[in-house]
Amino acid sequence: MREILFAGLGGQGVLTCGLIVAEVALFNGRTATWSPSYGSAMRGGAANCTVKYSREMVYNPSLDEPDLLLAMSESALALHGHLVKKGGIVLVNSDLVGGEGFGRTDVSVHRVPCSSLAQRIGQPKGANVIMTAAIIKLLGDFGFEDGMRGMNDMFRKKGKERFEKGNSAAFEAGYSAV
Amino acid sequence: MAEMMKGNVAIAEAAVRAGVRFYAGYPITPSSEIMEYLAKRLPELGRQFIQSESELAAINMVMGAAACGVRALTASSGPGISLKQEGISVLSDEELTCVVVNVVRYGNGLGTLFSSQCDYFRETRGGGNGDYRCIVLCPSSIQEAVDLMLTAYELAEKYRVVTVFMTEGALGQMMEPCELPDFVEPPKLPWGFDGKYSYKKIGIFDRDSMQEAEQLNRKYETIRAEEQRWESENVQDADYVFVAYGLPGRAVKGVTRQMRAQGLKVGLIRPITAWPFPVKAFAEVNPGVKGFITVEANATGQMVDDVALASKTVFRDRFVPTHALPCVYGLPSRKFIMDGFGQIVSGARKEVY
Amino acid sequence: MAVSRKVPAIIDRETSFCPGCGHGIVIRLIAECLEELGQDNNVIFPLGVGCSSLLGGGLVTDRLHCPHGRASAVATGMKRCEPDVTIVAYQGDGDAYSIGIAETLNAAYRNENITMIAINNTNFGMTGGQMSWTTMPGQKTTTSPKGRDCAVTGNPIRFPELVASQFDVAYAARGAVTSPKRIATVKKYIKNALAAQVNKEGYSTVEVLSPCPTNWGLDVLGAMKRIEEEIIPYYPLGEFKKREER
Lengths: 178, 353, 246
Prior knowledge:
The complex is a heterotrimer.
Chain A: E1 2-9, H1 14-27, E2 31-36, E3 46-54, E4 68-71, H2 74-80, E5 89-93, E6 108-112, H3 114-120, H4 127-139, H5 144-157, H6 164-176
Parallel strand pairs in A: 1-4, 4-5, 5-6
Antiparallel strand pairs in A: 1-3, 2-3
Helix pairs in contact in A: 1-4, 1-5, 3-4, 4-6, 5-6
Chain B: E1 3-6, H1 7-17, E2 22-25, H2 32-44, E3 48-51, H3 55-67, E4 72-76, H4 78-83, H5 85-93, E5 99-104, H6 120-125, E6 135-137, H7 142-159, E7 163-168, H8 169-173, E8 175-178, H9 209-226, E9 230-233, E10 240-243, H10 246-261, E11 266-271, E12 273-275, E13 291-296, H11 303-314, E14 322-326, H12 334-346
Parallel strand pairs in B: 2-3, 2-4, 4-5, 5-7, 6-7, 10-11, 10-13, 13-14
Antiparallel strand pairs in B: 1-8, 6-12, 9-11
Helix pairs in contact in B: 1-2, 1-7, 3-5
Chain C: H1 23-36, E1 43-47, E2 62-65, H2 71-81, E3 86-92, H3 93-99, H4 101-109, E4 115-120, H5 150-153, H6 159-166, E5 171-176, H7 180-198, E6 204-209, H8 213-216, H9 220-234, E7 238-241
Helix pairs in contact in C: 1-7, 2-4, 3-4
């Protein structure tokens, strides 16, 4: 079973990022759960969600010990950095998160400047898709094609196929960034 | 094919497919997505949706719809359901039927928004005045919730009681793959008003409360005998049997399976009906069982009372200790369950009963 | 020329109100109006708690005893599910205006297509004559033993005027059952209110000033006289929202 924590600020698209990974897992024959923080936590500040996927039932959908943390902001890293499994992965948005360490040497840290990268490829709203692709590559459970197809399938089901070209470009950029 | 769906949305659509004609409710986190979804969905189908001025008004509007013999729904959370108790008591007294969804959140008074199971006592005992019970269903996954919605109405109508659909904040807010059932078109219920006095309902002053009490007891006995639902595994040879429902039930299932794989003789009973409590599940338990352990998302341990009573009913010749591991809110982690289990086995943690 | 009146078919037995009470008159008027409008076999009564509950023992119709004060919310659920059936919430002043003011006002606020008949006898009758929100200034009740002090209780509420002036309702009126002439006017109001609902014009309400000799400590004629001399000056009779005004 895989556990991923997507954490950042409201408006950064972390909830969608988590949902894409869950949908990619589902598309590729896994079962998945997506659990957001909700309620007062939704108002002006942190946003995060936990995604778990597995070949069998996901028994406990809530946050426990993530294999990977996506930290889209300084506060996300500061709040959740200690939760990551020993030997796990931390993926940070280096446009917003400084280069100093966060007290962990037992995890591998990957830095992607997703906001500026999104601007550079002409997809200013694609930072979260860039990180989605990076996560899929870092975890290695699904290949490039499986990830891309799963993502596009999700947006098609939501009637948002008009964004497919832009999403695909962002996905490619993210997959190459790690 | 199963699609990722949010719990509250899946529950709302399942209710639509079960033939719900009427919804009245008031917004409250973490249940609001149910009414938001139905605000669009029910009018689309020519059915009725009302955002009421209060929780009180909502349950009374549902009562009006139920009196007219349609499938009616309301949903809320903790304190909102407190306000509905007056109406639930009257619905029960008038033998009217509806489903009340409680997306449980933690705390007394206004409480918090944390996912919880702290309303177990209120839902299973009948939280209003008088002497009634509601059938209480407690799904542990979105798929199970969706599959139980039609059952919730069928049970309510079979026995003319209110069904409480007891979910949890986390189940309402999370997404997981889910397949929706087909649509059903229920006929108007035979006791529904039509303005023509077709159903000869008698006024309250002509009722015989003593006779009704006997009938009510017989009805509740029948429900207890016929409608217990549960899932259990590995109880026949278990030294310890865990009892947990809803999302914690599902989390405990994962942990007990791991414990089994490590050679620990543990089993699980996961109630699907919190009332009637699945006493029959305990009859299948190893006669030499050393203890029962509830894992509950509340502060004080509530279901542990029912487990102790079930144990007393089934193990008449000896005392079996009943323990509680209340995790207050959220879901119990593997570590929480394992630490608690260790304390129980070593004797460091005393039984509740 | 004298006209003989027959008892409406939905009234199947004598009511059990106190001597001199106005409830029975109003229930008779409602039944006559329903019959005249062809609605007597097409009606549901959500009933208040209090003396208004006793309607439930006097009519053979669909009727539900609602939680105290909630009849207008129950009526709303009924009307939405049976839009072609006439729904009459029958309530007292304590039920409709004290404990039930939120549900009562909100049904008017939504302009729900129901009719609410409120019997205003300036006290909680069933429980033995306690102060309600329509108790007159200075009126002695079991919970205002020195007379109602409006400085600490607020002033008696005028519901038909309130909804007629503030909300977009179809019809609002107040009558009194103190004389044959006044009773005939109340019947006209009730018929207007019910006709408004049948024509799907929206919310309609009639408040009826009604004697409560038992709790007022007066004889029947004395109670009638009190309404004329003391209550009507505060609670004016008439139509506050006429049907054609809408």
